[in-house]
Write a structure and sequence with these properties.
2 domains, single chain, about 500 residues, about 85% helix, mainly alpha, 19 helices
Length: about 500
């Protein structure tokens, strides 16, 4: 098994466990908390997410690039210091002006929780730094363990608090505890590299900050714009509509993005590390870009079809009747979620090729279109129009950026478009029994049973045709076999 397959297997293994825990526990959490609770929580996460993503000024992305570990250690320390400073400054502002910020957002329910935002920013920012340092050191097993700890502790605290007295504080406390647990676990592994701290000096930090200045000048603004464009929807929905609408939207997005996002992030992180190596060694990242891109399309296109066909039925069955509307919202989000999943891992190409300026242009254009679409949708007074416009603009920009990145990597993007269509055609063919069952108005349980069967058929075909996924499945099989053999002794 290749080193790339092994590394992705480690990260995706942790992602699968975290995904399974998150997905399996969402129905429990959805029955403990109301849409209003989820609405407050999502706006809280949106603000914290924006601040966290800019807290490192994108220097954490540069940790992968230096040839010497000593230089990377200086960048890691620089990133950590920036996270602490950002958390402290933002904390002072948020706490002093909590009431004013809540009033400006037309969301008074948020005021009592704003003071906890800098805590999550600190823990989330450190999570980014630790992730990239451990990825550079190829400690992907520890990174995977951190993700599992984050998911399990997060959901465990949320369930425990919800059983007691359900409120947004329980959801927020789970998010804070999850990142805290992940950071502690990863710090234990980072301690093994503490000898590298002796190489950290102010002069080196300053020199490397200047050497990689494109990251704060371009990449930080680009990642901030990208994050704001993702997080701006709950904030605008909160301004124009009710907490319940925000809650329905947020759960719809979370239920889909959680499994896809974890796998996508895992692939992205290993892809960045491998692409950086290939760029330094050969200057040709085309083959690995093509490999990863085609795999992401094949993996993600079928779940999107299922959501378009039976989104409402899935949400009602797993989450309860109060979340029917969230199942409808998820259909509106499918175009954006698909293209975001496919293109997000490839955006690291901007950093690998040091084309951060182009990335910034794309992200600023996307953010502008998002703000305009949400404003127009909000002014209509119809959340469906607002969410649909948001999704379509995101899908168009992500699709265009994806094709431009493929071209930048030296690939025939028209050929890749043809393969998108081919995968979609195969997905529709495999899903034909489910389409027929939907037209016949079969009960929800029957629809879900058919969906399960056709999913097995589709992914069996994907695995058979993909050597990487064959290796992944074989790796899981060997792990299960080893576990059974050990248990029988």
């Amino acid at each position: 098994m290749s080193r790339f397959v092994t590394n992705v297997l480690k990260l995706v293994s942790g992602s699968v466990i975290a995904q399974a825990a998150g997905v399996l526990l969402i129905p429990v959490i959805a029955r403990l908390y109301s849409p209003d609770d989820f609405g407050v929580f999502q706006v809280f996460l949106s603000i914290a997410g924006i601040l966290a993503i800019i807290s490192c000024f994108s220097y954490h992305l540069a940790i992968m690039l230096p040839g010497e570990d000593e230089d990377a250690a200086n960048l890691a320390v620089l990133s950590a210091v920036l996270v602490v400073a950002t958390s402290a400054v933002s904390g002072a502002v948020l706490i002093i002006f909590a009431e004013n910020i809540a009033a400006a957002l037309n969301f008074p329910a948020l005021a009592g929780y704003i003071g906890l935002i800098p805590v999550l920013v600190l823990l989330n920012g450190l999570f980014f730094v630790l992730n990239y340092w451990l990825s550079r050191r190829e400690k992907f097993g520890t990174v995977a363990g951190g993700r599992v700890a984050n998911s399990l502790v997060n959901k465990g605290v949320q369930i425990g608090a919800g059983i007691g007295v359900a409120s947004p504080l329980g959801l927020i406390g789970g998010a804070v505890a999850g990142y805290g647990a992940a950071d502690i676990l990863m710090l234990r592994e980072v301690r093994k590299d503490r000898h590298l701290l002796s190489s950290v000096t102010l002069a080196k930090v300053r020199a490397l900050a200047i050497r990689y200045r494109k990251f704060p000048i371009f990449t930080s603004w680009s990642t901030a714009a990208n994050e704001v464009s993702r997080q701006v929807s709950p904030i605008f929905l909160a301004f124009f509509f009710t907490p319940a609408i925000v809650g329905l939207y947020s759960l719809a997005y979370q239920a889909v993005s959680l499994p896809l996002g974890l796998v996508g992030t895992a692939v992205s992180q290993v892809f960045f590390q491998r692409a950086s190596e290939e760029q330094k060694k050969t200057g040709d990242i085309g083959p690995i870009v093509q490999e990863v891109h085609r795999r992401l399309v094949a993996i993600s296109i079928f779940p999107m079809l299922l959501l378009l066909l039976i989104g409402e039925e899935m949400f009602v069955f797993f989450l309860g009747p109060q979340w029917y509307e969230a199942g409808f919202y998820v259909k509106l989000l499918v175009p954006w979620i698909f293209f975001m999943f496919v293109s997000s891992p490839l955006t690291t190409i901007f950093s690998v090729l040091e084309k951060q300026g182009a990335g910034l242009v794309f992200d600023l254009a996307l953010l502008t279109s998002r703000v305009v679409s949400l404003t127009i949708g909000g002014m209509t007074g119809d959340p469906v129009i607002a969410i649909l416009l948001f999704s379509l603009t995101g899908a168009l920009f992500c699709a265009f950026m994806n094709l431009w990145l493929l071209k930048l990597a030296g690939l025939d993007y028209l050929r890749e478009c043809y393969l998108w269509c081919a995968d979609l055609a195969v997905g529709l063919l495999v899903a034909a029994p489910l389409i027929a069952a939907k037209l016949l108005s079969l009960p929800a349980l029957a629809l879900l049973a058919v969906a399960f069967v056709v999913s097995l058929v589709y992914y069996a075909r994907v695995v058979v045709r993909d050597p990487f996924l064959k290796g992944w499945v074989a790796g899981y099989y060997q792990e299960i076999k080893r576990f059974i053999n050990q248990s029988s002794r």
